Automatic annotation (TrEMBL):
Domain IrrE N-terminal-like stretches: 71-167
Any one Pfam family match given in the protein's UniProt record, by short name: Peptidase_M78
InterPro entries xrefs: IrrE_HExxH, Rad_response_metalloprotease
Highest classification ranks of the organism: Bacteria, Pseudomonadati, Bacteroidota, Cytophagia, Cytophagales
Domain of life where this protein originates: Bacteria
Name of the protein this chain belongs to: ImmA/IrrE family metallo-endopeptidase
Annotated signal peptide: none
Length: 256
């Protein structure tokens, strides 16, 4: 997890770039690349990478894998492109590319990386596509629920996952996102103000009496958030925290 200070730094950097190049419209990573003289290409690169940035012969080039999505306007390639721009705009990343310290590396848009460089580029990407001050305006007078996430995701051309991760860092609401595949927890992330820290079986099976647990057990889908007891998901919940409202919601993700 990035420190709060680093999150703010990267968010501010991304917002400055969004305001400079796309001040009054949806943020277009390809437009920003063009303005910075970064060439790019997209296509079906198999499973080699989702995105890649190269520095060769004095210039940068970005590759975006559009195998699953067809074109650069879809949410996933937009995020991938923004992630690669992160490697260009974040000073330390660019310097490392310029002096060959980190040769081009494949990046994957699955939010599962534990590499701090990748986590920084992901945070930059979410902040670029969903600039803090614009998103905060959309949140005014709206309570936090899934329809807010959907509205913001559509407005900014960002995936549901990227949108939830962004909302996590703008202090709208304490949030934890748990990604599980075939009944097992793959990764989880939470906002700094999220009160429960100790997931039951952090990398084991999803707890039974949660919406995700019910889905994996018998395929049952609930269309809404439901209030459940926090100690279905977490260990060591204090009596004081048990009285807080805790809402569970399950998102079906075929594509991050
Ligand atoms: Zn990367």
């Amino acid at each position: 997890m990035l420190s709060r200070k680093r999150e703010i730094e990267l968010s501010e950097l991304a917002e400055t770039i969004a305001e400079l190049y796309c001040p009054s419209e949806i943020v277009l990573p390809e437009h920003i690349a063009t303005m910075k003289g970064i060439t790019f290409s997209n296509g079906d690169y198999g499973s080699a990478f989702d995105g890649l940035i190269e520095f060769e012969n004095g210039s940068f080039h970005i590759f975006v894998n559009t195998k699953l999505d067809g074109d650069l306007r879809q949410a996933r390639p937009r995020f991938t492109f923004a992630h690669e721009l992160g490697h260009y705009f974040i000073d330390e990343h660019r310097q490392a590319l310029l002096n060959g310290r980190t040769p081009s590396h494949p990046s994957y848009t699955n939010f599962a990386s534990k590499n701090p460089i990748e986590i920084e580029a992901d945070h930059f990407a979410a902040s670029l596509l969903l600039p803090a001050s614009r998103v905060k305006k959309d949140c005014v007078k709206r309570s936090f629920n899934f329809s807010l996430v959907q509205d913001i995701s559509q407005k900014y051309g960002a995936s549901i996952t990227a949108t939830v991760l962004r909302l996590m860092t703008i202090d709208k609401h304490p949030i934890m996102l748990v990604c599980s595949v075939q009944g097992k927890v793959k990764w989880f992330k939470h906002s700094h103000d999220f009160p429960f820290k100790w997931l039951k079986q952090p990398f084991g099976y999803v707890p039974k009496y949660t919406l995700a647990g019910t889905y994996f057990k018998n395929g049952e889908k609930f269309a809404e958030e439901l209030p459940i007891s926090a100690n279905e998901w977490f260990e060591y919940v204090s009596d004081r925290d048990l009285s807080r409202n805790f809402w569970d919601y399950r998102i079906n993700c075929v594509n991050f």
